[in-house]
Design a protein that fits this description.
With 192 residues, this protein is mainly beta. Strands 3-2-1-13-5 form a five-stranded mixed beta sheet, with helices on one face. It has a four-stranded mixed beta sheet with strand order 6-9-10-12. Strand 1 and strand 2 form a beta hairpin. The longest helix is centred in the C-terminal third of the chain and has 10 residues. The chain is globular. The N terminus is likely disordered.
Amino acid sequence: MTVEQGAKNQINISQSDQPNFTPTLDSPQVQSALPNTSERMRSLLMRIKPPVKPSLPHTTEQNIYLLLILKQRRLYVYRGDILQASYPVAVGKLKWETPTGKFKVINMVENPAWENPFVPNRGVVPPGLENPLGERWIGFWTDGKNQIGFHGTYKRDSVGKAASHGCVRMYNEDVRKLYEIVKIGTSISVVP
């Protein structure tokens, strides 16, 4: 899975000596901060427009974590021990199961583009109604080539089922809300 456009909180850069500093993808500070998971990912991230503006975490940590229970096809959002929200999801189908274990959010993208990992040289599907990633991407697993994460979907009837190739599909309105709650590094537990 490849994602592009509008990465959020991908970079943590502090330029305290330059109060009006706004990094761009061409700046050396951002270049060195881009993920090195693969050259293909780097190439796609370099197409992001407008420039990414990093946001520094609040000094009072909110302690948000996610619990995905696969058999319930449900994602739970907790702040400390208090349930904040819960969303229905689609999970990986037979032989393409969503991985279980403890993870962290590794990347986030608004209006992602998608490249079909099963059809070589098919090209990139831009954001829009034909894009299977919907309106947001929140990645939490990678093998350096492929990725798994939470994403929106325009196939609303797939939510609540085991229907994906490992990703966690959500209604677009729900993944937009989740995108505003989590950040890079948010903890995720996926259990059967």
